[in-house]
Design brief:
single chain; mainly alpha; 14 helices
């Protein structure tokens, strides 16, 4: 296992955090998330960790040139069957967890749902249609289309955006921290991933809060999700399942909007995939993985090609 010097890890973090603040600076100097350019800067910010990795690899050269893709989990995809199945799990697993989080929120009274009439979703659609005479397609048809689109979005446009973050946090940082043990690597990388979002969280992103509590909420959520994404990374010895899972997670975060009852609201700090209900659902899944012994194995970053025809 390649050991990454602490100086290299610290350099990566300084660059990843610094670039994130640099990209978000126009939002801080302007109207925050209301800035028209916010829709462009947020995806660009997601590539700050990837840029940080590239700079560190080229300047500090902690990994030999021929081993970089293997270390980051980009290539080779071996064993292919494991990578494929873990990628499928990455596409659908986060959706299941967020559905569980939705049920937890309903159970605790944090969200009032309408699973039959989808009245809140229908109310939202009507509010977004200026001409009240314009007929709206059946709400269940639109909801089904939204649900069906989740894995497709996760595997395409969302995966492209998520790759920028995953290359840094799960591709580089998790393996870099593995020298200290699997759990320290997963928990520390998750916390650092959450804190990295500070430039936009303090502007109200995700939780609608502009204080330190919002940052703490995001950090807690990212620790839970970071363990799950990190498990995919280590269990598959590939970056791609984590990329697809991150894409699916982002695509499914809007599920409460589909199932909420009309005339009600919900607090994202409680009833969201990154809020308390998400922590409970995610921790439950982590517990199942623990009981199944899924965190005990320490696979290589990528399996070497087996020798054939040699003694």
């Amino acid at each position: 296992m390649t050991r990454i010097r602490p100086l290299v890890t610290i350099s990566f973090l300084v660059l990843a955090y610094g670039l994130a603040w640099l990209v978000a600076l126009p939002l801080w100097l302007g109207d925050g998330l209301a800035e028209p350019i916010a829709g462009v800067l947020l995806p660009v910010m997601m590539y700050a960790p990837a840029v940080a990795v590239v700079i560190v690899l080229l300047v500090l050269r902690p990994i030999p040139k021929g081993q970089r893709l293997r270390f980051l989990g980009i290539w080779p995809l071996r064993p292919a069957k494991r990578v494929v199945w873990m990628s499928v799990l990455g596409l659908f697993g986060p959706v299941v967890i967020i559905v569980l989080a939705l049920l937890v929120a309903v159970g605790f009274g944090w969200l009032t749902a309408d699973f039959v009439g989808l009245s809140g979703f229908q109310e939202l659609l009507r509010a977004q249609t200026p001409d009240t005479s314009t007929p709206i397609p059946p709400v269940w048809l639109l909801a089904a289309a939204q649900l069906i689109a989740i894995p497709f979005a996760a595997a395409t446009i969302n995966a492209v955006a998520a790759f920028g973050e995953e290359l840094g946090w799960r591709g580089f940082l998790v393996p870099a921290l593995r020298r200290w043990g699997t759990w320290p690597a997963l928990l520390i990388s998750g916390a650092l991933w959450g804190l990295w979002h500070t430039p936009v969280i303090l502007l109200g992103y995700n939780f609608g809060r502009t204080d330190v509590f919002g940052v703490l909420l995001m950090t807690a959520g990212c620790i839970v999700w970071g363990v799950l994404l990190g498990w995919l990374r280590l269990r598959s010895a590939s970056l791609w399942p984590a990329v697809f899972a991150h894409g699916a997670m982002n695509a499914a975060m809007g599920l409460p909007v589909i199932f909420i009852a009309a005339g009600t609201t919900f607090e994202p700090a409680l009833a969201s995939g990154l809020g308390a209900s998400g922590w409970i659902a995610g921790t439950a899944v982590i517990g199942v993985l623990l009981l199944a012994g899924q965190f005990r194995r320490q696979p290589q970053l990528a399996a070497a090609r087996p020798d054939r025809g040699r003694a």
